[in-house]
Design goal:
Elements lengths: L1 E4 L1 H11 L7 H11 L5 H8 L4 E4 L2 H10 L13 H9 L4 E2 L3 H20 L7 E10 L2 E9 L10 H8 L3 H9 L6 E2 L4 H4 L8 E2 L7 E5 L3 E10 L2 E10 L2 H12 L7 H11 L4
Parallel strand pairs: 4-6
Antiparallel strand pairs: 1-2, 1-3, 4-5, 7-8, 8-9, 9-10
Length: 276
Amino acid sequence: MRIRADLDVVKALKKELATSLTLPSSHLTECLATGLGFRNNAAAMATFRNGPDVRDIDETGFQARMRDLGHTAPRDQDCDEPLFSAALRAVPRSLVPVDHSEGMIIALAAAARRVREQNGEAEEPGSLDIDWEHLGGNQFTCRLHVSSTYGTFIENNPEHVRRVIAADPDTLWELASSVEPEWIANYVPEDSEKLVEGDPVRESNVYLNGTYIKLYREAVLIETTRANNGAWEETRRVVEIDPDTHDRILEIMDSYNYGDAHQVADVLELLADPED
């Protein structure tokens, strides 16, 4: 997986790694730099002083550098991915997903972090329910609802729930792989995303209540920007269309002057009731 790193992210990763690895601070700094693909810490700092940079997480390099410095590598201690694990716990939203599976893992880790911040590590979590939403592309969000009682939930194994809240990588992968598409609000299959690559045939060039329309040959991309707890949240929805619907939408968009938001309303109305 990749990570969008900067000086603050590096500081957070080092703090998290220090909770499980007993290395001198200077050694941990050098291992972390290698794990982010740099020759040494000086090279890493030179890059990050100029701003964030997207880096590959190199677990092999991280652990090899530990051995070079005379330490037992985490893999030898039944901890396969210490750097990735630290990122999941400390800076999940700095991770950059390349597919839906990675996006879901990141969403779970971010939600688990919120639970830990609110409730601690939840010694007796009981059971767990999850609300999923697809934000478009490889971006997902979810909310974890933890109960101290048992019931009909997605998870009711206390030890498994505890590992989810702790953002254990293997547990998150297992949980994400068990999610059915129909459980995810606004889910768009990865194949559908390919229908809205490249330049659109037409686009609205104006927003209506935060919604923007892009028309492609086989799909419509609906992009929405909305405020959520003081921050702006963007979502994408792909609607597959047949040739007739494509022509009707093109006719609608061409019938309005540039910047007229009524076209957005008319396209959304057509997509809601294509037989009308």
